[in-house]
Amino acid sequence: MANVPANLKYSQDHEWVRVEGDVAVIGITDYAQSELGDIVFVDVPTVGETLEANEVFGSIEAVKTVSDAFTPVGGEVIEFNEAVEADSSLVNKDPYGEGWLVKIKMANPAELDDLLDAAGYEALIG
User: Fold this and answer.
1) How far is CA 95 from CA 2, 30, 48, 51, in A?
2) Where are the domains of the chain?
3) Domain 14-110 has CATH 3.30.70.260
4) What tens digit of pLDDT does each residue of 71-98 get?
5) CA distance 53 to 111
6) Residue 116 DSSP code
7) What is the separation of C-alpha 47 from the centre of its chain, rounded to a whole number of angstroms?
8) Going along the chain, which residue ranges are E strands?
9) pTM > 0.85: yes or no
């Protein structure tokens, strides 16, 4: 069973959001990393760009596939996790901690209301 922390919000696309003031810290869920398998590279070319909710902010490359990563909320991409750039396996080892991907300064925090809570995400992944 995938780990689904209760203090986070979740997208239908398997990203999680942790709110820190007006900043959304975003990563992929434990379920997503387990489905992808061993992650070998994370590419986030969007730092400094302003994106709408549900836009692609980067890609996650695993041994057998490449998957787009989507922003659950809109805003400016202000930081990419350099630790993940150096060691992409952090996404597999600690998806909710050291393996976070980006920080976005939210344009509209009300968009968080459109995301799933832990129970809703658990229902989604079955």
Assistant:
1) 11, 6, 23, 23
2) 14-110
3) no
4) 999 999 999 999 999 999 999 999 999 9
5) 8
6) B
7) 14
8) 9-10, 15-20, 23-28, 39-43, 50-51, 56-62, 66-70, 75-80, 102-106
9) yes
